[in-house]
# Entry
Amino acid sequence: MAEEFLSNGEFEKSIELFQKSLDVAKRISDKEKEYKSLIKLGLLYWNIVEFEESTEMYVQALSLARELNLKKEKEECQAALEIYRLYIEGKKHRSSGEYLKSIETFQKAIH
# Structure
């Protein structure tokens, strides 16, 4: 159901359902489902420009990926967090008038 809302662009409803999924996964100690819910929430929060919340989800997912020894998933989390770091850095350069540095930083984030 949450996936259906996600594919229809109903991010808030999808967030609500993935949050419930996360709560259940934690309650039953299903760390893989917990990881999957965190990843979905991270993406959803990014889509609605809630970058700090998105980052928190990815940080938690990275911790679980390490705990579960999920190499590919760990790399994906690290990549998402690096994109966020570069995004923030690019915004700082732009705000301080360093437009070329800003462009370079944003380009790093998309490559």
Summary: The chain has a mean pLDDT of 93. The chain has one domain: 2-110. DSSP finds six helices and no strands in the chain.
